[in-house]
Design a protein that fits this description.
The protein is of the alpha/beta class and about 350 residues long. The protein folds into two domains: about 200 residues, Medium-chain alcohol dehydrogenases, catalytic domain (Quinone Oxidoreductase, Chain A, domain 1); about 120 residues, Rossmann fold (3-Layer(aba) Sandwich). It is built from twelve helices and 17 strands. The strands form four sheets. Strands 3, 4, 5, 8, 9, 16 and 17 form a seven-stranded mixed beta sheet that branches. Strands 12-11-10-13-14-15 form a six-stranded parallel beta sheet, with helices on both faces. The chain has a two-stranded antiparallel sheet with strand order 1-2. The protein starts with a strand and ends with a strand.
Length: about 350
Amino acid sequence: MKAAFYEGKGQITTGSCTPTDPGAGQVRVRVSHCGICGTDLHIFHGNMDHRVKLPQIIGHEMSGMIDAVGPAVEGGWKAGDRVTVRPLDSCGNCPACVAGHSHICMNLKFIGIDSPGAMQSLWTLPARTLHRLPEHLSFEQAALIEPIAVACHDVRMGELKAGEQAVVLGGGPIGLLIGLVAKAKGASVLISEVNPFRVELARSLGLDVIDPSIVDVVAAVNDRTGGAGADVVFEVAGAGATVELMTKLPRTRGRIVMVAIHSQPKPVDLFRFFWRELRLIGARVYEAEDFDEAIALAAAGSLPLDRVISKVVPIEGLAGAFHEMESGGEVMKILVRCGE
């Protein structure tokens, strides 16, 4: 079988890999497609070498079909079932897990980073990570379920309701999906994004978008809300400028959802939190219910997923896809075809 291996900073090779028979509680999945995400790009840049074990098969945004089922597997899974994977491996024993928050387990292992991922033809992993896919959903669209689940979790954590005003700072894949999920829930959405390709794509999908290098975002939000401010602001860009901006946009008792990962501390206007009684909400990965909602939205055709997919490349094209992404090319989401 084929697999793509991360060999070190900037190095991807494609070669053969021996399939692993599923053990107790495990299944082997024939992977169809795998999306490339920002985390994969961080790995490619060598920024996560402290976690990956070289050579490492990466990837976690996937779709596929069960190839074999090991002993003692619960849930009625069988060969031929169409599935996607929630790639979290929690310990089950820490205070977070005991409290019911296993997705932010204190000892969490992320499958595809801390253990082999989906960019291989046959992938063996715990059956408890599986979610069932409807028959009519294409494998290409189903490879977006994981990032859609991220968006569903972010929107749910922000307690966004129909009729409310949401502002999304950053129009990359996750920001775009947050906007689409929020719109599907009946919210009014404004995205702030500087990349011209992303701006035009989001607009073509029916979202309102402004370029903060041209338009005053605070003025635009106040104009949309009669000076009240947004109900929910999603900080997705992960930049100092958007952290500075995020506190200027919410209404009184508005919510700010921190979606982006900030590896270094950044200044935050705490006076604004006091003055308007704002709430800052952290949102990390997803829970089972977010995957269920993501699958339901995709299956219902509520999201224009084919338009989000920029291209599909063979597994041998993974390195080239990384270079295209880091060069700022006109791409939103690139999928890797992992099947034989």
